[in-house]
Amino acid sequence: MTLTVLIIGCGDIGITLGRELLSEGHRVIGVRRHVDALQDTGIEPLALDLNELEDADAKALPEADYVIYTVSADHFEESAYQSAYPEGLKRVLSVMEQHATPPRRVFFVSSTSVYGQQEGEVVNEESPTEPTSFSGTLMCEAEQALINHPLPGTVVRFSGIYGPGRDRLIHQVAEGRIAAVTPVIYSNRIHRDDCTGILAHLIHCQENSQPLADLYLGSDCEPVTMHNVMDWIAQQLKVTSTDTMQSPLRRRTSKRCDNRRILETGYQFRYPTFREGYAQVLKKGGFWRVQKA
Question: Which InterPro entries match (predicted)?
Answer without folding.
Answer: Epimerase_deHydtase (IPR001509), NAD(P)-bd_dom_sf (IPR036291), NAD(P)-dependent_oxidoreduct (IPR051783)
